[in-house]
Amino acid sequence: MAKYEISGLQCDKPGCNYVDPSIKLEDYKSYINYPCPKCGSSLLTQADYDTVQRVIAVTESIPHDPNDKTITSFSLDGSGELRIKDFHENR
Ligand SMILES: [Zn+2]
Description:
- The protein has one helix at 46-61; strands at residues 7-10, 19-24, 70-76, 82-89.
- By secondary structure, it is an alpha+beta fold.
- The strands form two sheets. A two-stranded antiparallel sheet has the order 1-2.
- Strand 1 and strand 2 (19-24) form a beta hairpin.
- The longest helix is centred in the middle third of the chain and has 16 residues, at 46-61.
- The radius of gyration is 14 Å and the shape is elongated.
- The mean pLDDT is 83.
- Zinc ion binds next to loops.
């Protein structure tokens, strides 16, 4: 299994930079269409949630190379499109 880091939610509305890094992946389901405390737009769309579930399914289906310490960070913008932010070594 490859490693991934998924946690926290941020508001996707342009100009609103609300972010809650404390939200855990396992709590995402209860945040679908949860209104941003700052601007009221949805923090996590159903499309984004579905994408996250697909990413997890794909990631867990890849045999993990114990020597591969790469961690992939990505972001979602509300459309369900995944954007890779960066790859970095887990030290
Ligand atoms: Zn917002």
